[in-house]
Structures
1.
Amino acid sequence: MNKTIEAALNQQINAELHSAYTYLAMSAHFAEKDFDGFSTWMRMQAQEELAHAMKLYDYVLERGGHVALETVAAPAKKLGTPLKIFETALAHEKKITGMIHDLYELARKNKDYATENQLNWFVTEQVEEEDSAGRAVEQLKRAGDNMSALLMLDQQFGARSSE
Ligand code: FEO
């Protein structure tokens, strides 16, 4: 496969692993603050990110390419309120969407139709990712500082099965 595309796919694998790491840190933070439902939501999100990385990993191998695993950057240490954390998650997803679109553009420019096709799944997935983080932000904004509303949301988010 084209070396520029291979490098870009490896970069995306790294970004997805970093996403998993980011959400895992958020999950641990929520668990430490006894927001068990938010913690479950973030833990499931981390698992999804790992699945995204593996989807690209398998694809690179399937195309006879080389998987180059690099250092995964540490997640942020200061996380803030539940609203701030979900706002960070939404901003993160928007950044990932931009990366996927750049990758898509690169595949198109290089007439790599197989990669373009593979990336279609990710384009659709990013719409869902932004939607679920965006809805969480709106719900948390509505709850504000009302602890009983926050606890209700915590319980609701804990019921997440998969998205
Ligand atoms: Fe793999 Fe949340 O984007």
2.
Amino acid sequence: MSDRKPLIAGNWKMNLDHQQGIALVQKLAWTLKDVNHDYDKVEVAVLPPFTDLRSVQTLIDADKLQFVIGAQDLSKFDSGAYTGEVSAQFLNKLDVKYVLVGHSERRTLHNEDGDVIQAKVAAAFRNNLIPVICVGETLEELEQQGAAAVPIQQLEKALEGHKEIGEFVVAYEPVWAIGTGKVATAEQAAEVAKKLRSSISELVSDEVAQVTRILYGGSVKSANVAGFLASEEVDGVLVGGASLDVGEFTGICRFQKHVSL
Ligand code: PGA
């Protein structure tokens, strides 16, 4: 591992209402407490649906839990007549630290193109949220262009034209591995992460490339997580399905012990 602090982020997607969300966070806190999880060594983030955020934040505050909160999306605007949108300013008020931008489900199911993603990254920077910029290729793109080409193009576009670049995280999630049970090999993930890091170094600077965390995502489970994180290049994981199962997610948070509960 490098000296970048690993980030384990659980993207609940559109699952768990606020009561179920509270129950899961409580159980997760107890389970990680039982195994003496060291949050200073491995950061743990939960990314609930918008309607759960206030409840989860209140619980974290009241019980002094050490989880951090992420949101799954944000508006590119800060306020105004944008029915149904959620502003980064509101997220900020709820102590949200991270926000996913450019998840493949948003790109494909909600038609978010590179311009929208770039504007959302800008909204995150403006409001002191850390965007987790998701990039990844489809199976067809993998076959035609190899694994790294599309993720690099997507990252370039997301980082282009900002007045100021704040802290960000990159999540490499091959589209063909999301929710499918098919995973990239640890070598594939490490190779793409390495190329993404060099492109950050070209696009922004060497210093930023050295401190930026690059995660892998796509069918991560407690049984395969250690392989991904064995590489110096991969600084954490973005977990979908397995983040809804406390035992699995705890096993993932404890990747350093190679334990699955
Ligand atoms: P998965 O989802 O772990 O269920 O494959 C990952 C993601 O979409 O972030």
